[in-house]
Structures are given as C-alpha cells and as structure tokens.
Amino acid sequence: MQAPHPAIRPIDDSERAAWPTEPTVTLPPAFTDERGAIQPLLDLRSDSCVLIHSQQGTQRANHYHRSDWHYCYVLDGEIAYYERPTGSAEAPRRTVFSTGEMFFTGPMLDHTMVFLKDTTFLTWGRNSRSQEVYEADIVRIPSLAPTE
C-alpha cells in the first residue's frame, strides 16, 4: 500500500460516524421567500470542490479512495452510479441519480459512474483535488458497470 500524502489527514471515528450509510443523500428543505429559494447542499469541511462535465455514454471513477469521500450534486443530466465495498466479490449496487439529486461515496468503496445523458455535476471532496494528492489516495479498478 502506498504511503499517504502529507496533505491527507487521518480519519477519526467522529468523522466516520457522520458519513451517510447509503449513497442517496436527502437534502434539507430549501429556504424560500418572495425572492426565490436557497437550497442547502453541504455544511461540513471539505478541501475541494470541482465542476465536472461528462458526455453521454462515457464513464468516470473506476477506482476507490483510501481516505477521501465525495458528495456529488447533479446540476443537469443523469448518472448510473455503481458501488460495492472494496475487496468484495458481491455484485455492485446500481443507483441512478438525476438533476437536483445528491449522492455520497465514502472511502474504501469501489465505484463507477456511467453517464446516461450529457451531465454536469459538482463534487465536494474531503481531500485536496490537486493531482498529486488525488493520485496518492486512489486505487484504480476495472469498471463495475456491466458490459452491454
């Protein structure tokens, strides 16, 4: 196993206890008034936020994170998300996320994203998204998506 990057902080039990137990994240109600609405998305420490555009029919991820997690909010489009515990031989769980939905991927979860439509989404991560830190934390795996 590769030594962690110095910018990656250790995971403690209180952090682990706060993670969602399912990939689907239920968002709180929006604050609304005559001016419009404010939708809370994330209220915790993260070291990165990226905007990702993906073309229909392409894949991303095909890896797991040793310590990183990410929350993904779909701005527009549709993602078939596959996950299973790292090291497991069980069939991956497939969940489809669409515009306005958020999902969570914790550490040590193999995951694949297949884009069913052209998709734009935001991803908040625990760790920095600098390429050096990102590569120090991920382990690439074969796609979890079935071949069609």
CATH superfamily of the domain at 48-148: Jelly Rolls
**Which CATH architecture of the domain at 48-148?**
Sandwich
Q: Give the helix proportion (percent range).
A: under 10%
Global outline: globular
Number of helices: 2
Q: Overall mean pLDDT score?
A: 93
Q: What's the number of extended β-strand segments?
A: 12
Give the strand order, joined by hyphens, for the main sheet. 1-9-6-11-4
CATH topology-level name of the domain at 48-148: Jelly Rolls
Mind describing the biggest β-sheet? 5 strands, antiparallel
Quaternary structure classification? single chain
Look at the structure and give the CATH class of the domain at 48-148. Mainly Beta
Question: Unreliable segments (pLDDT under 50, ≥5 consecutive)?
Answer: none
Helix and strand composition category: mainly beta
Return Rg in Å: 16 Å
Element-level helix/strand string? HEEEEEEEEEEEHE
